[in-house]
Amino acid sequence: MSSNLAIKLRSGTQQAHTSAENVGFMKCFLKGVVDRDCFAKFLSNLYYVYSELEAALESLEHPVISAVYFPELNRQSSLEKDMVFYYGDNWKEQVTPSPATQKYIDRIREISASEPALLLGHAYTRYMGDLSGGQMLQKVAQSALKLSGYEGTSFYNFEQIPDKKAFKDKYRQALNELPVDDITAERIVAEANNAFGFNLQMAQELEGSLIKALGQVLFNSLTRSQNSGSTEVAAAN
Question: Is residue 108 within 8 Å of 56, Cβ to Cβ?
Answer without folding.
Answer: yes
